[in-house]
Write a structure and sequence with these properties.
The protein is mainly alpha-helical. Helix content is 78%, strand content 0%. It is built from 8 helices and no strands. It has helices spanning 12-35, 42-66, 72-79, 82-92, 96-125, 129-155, 160-193, 203-229. The radius of gyration is 18 Å and the shape is globular.
Length: 237
């Protein structure tokens, strides 16, 4: 199968517009979750902007669809009490799809930061594919576990030891599927777009990296669905 139709991923105009719009949308979401849609939990107040920087309009669409009740600005203007707003938000994000999306955001925001960091370092120091991949896995796992999963578990009343264990358990399974999706992209799709792994100073690097992360996000949805269904992850709440 040929993937030339994905050549836009290495196009300067596409990459610049994707990330610039992502930053602009992320700034709006930071304002929104702190001053308007304030019932968003703390981990996702950090996670959503990160996701939107990576996924631009797609990330913004997911936020508006799964995490922002219609008319939330109206509720914030004092027509309803804050407790009413919190209840409305809780009910809005109670659907299974919203819970799973919240779970995925927890996963991909932290993992993505770690993976991108390791990918940049790995390319600059000249690691081979599998050493770079291992570094991305370890870095992504630690970022996701410590920065997102652990605080989320602590906020649910778990003591530090329990939060580390439960956060690490959830992160382990999420990370496997996320990296599986990225691996498929890098090994099966990337070679059809560019002949060699691009360096971080190129548009191709950032276009293909975010595409691989996006494919990993899709692949990890079923795993996060299962983790939410058995109570190991808790979504938006």
């Amino acid at each position: 199968m040929h993937f030339q139709f994905l050549n836009f991923l290495i196009n300067e105009i596409f990459v610049l517009s994707w990330y610039v719009s992502g930053f602009i949308f992320a700034i709006w979401v930071i304002y929104d979750v702190h001053y308007v849609n304030t019932s968003v939990n703390k981990a996702l107040k950090t996670g959503w902007p990160v996701i939107i920087i990576f996924f631009s309009i797609v990330g913004l669409f997911l936020y508006l669809w799964t995490c922002r009740p219609t008319g939330i600005t109206y509720f914030k203007k004092g027509i309803n009490k804050k407790s009413t707003q919190a209840k409305i938000h809780h009910n809005y994000v109670a659907s299974t799809f919203s819970k799973v999306t919240g779970s995925v955001i927890h996963c991909v925001a932290g993992d993505g930061l770690g993976i991108m960091t390791a990918m940049v370092i790995g390319r600059y120091i000249g690691l081979n594919f599998w050493n770079e991949f291992a570094g991305e896995y370890i870095s992504g796992f630690l970022f996701g576990w410590i920065l997102f999963q652990y605080p989320a578990m602590r906020s649910m009343g778990n003591n530090p030891k329990e939060a580390l264990w439960k956060g690490g358990r959830a992160e382990f399974f999420s990370m496997i599927t996320l990296m599986a999706g990225m691996l498929l992209t890098m090994k099966l799709i990337q070679p059809h777009i560019i002949a060699f792994p691009p360096m971080p100073g190129t548009y191709a690097f950032w276009g293909i990296a975010v595409f691989a992360l996006f494919i990993g996000t899709i692949v990890t949805y079923p795993m996060n669905w299962w983790l939410v269904s058995i109570g190991w992850k808790h979504g938006m709440t």
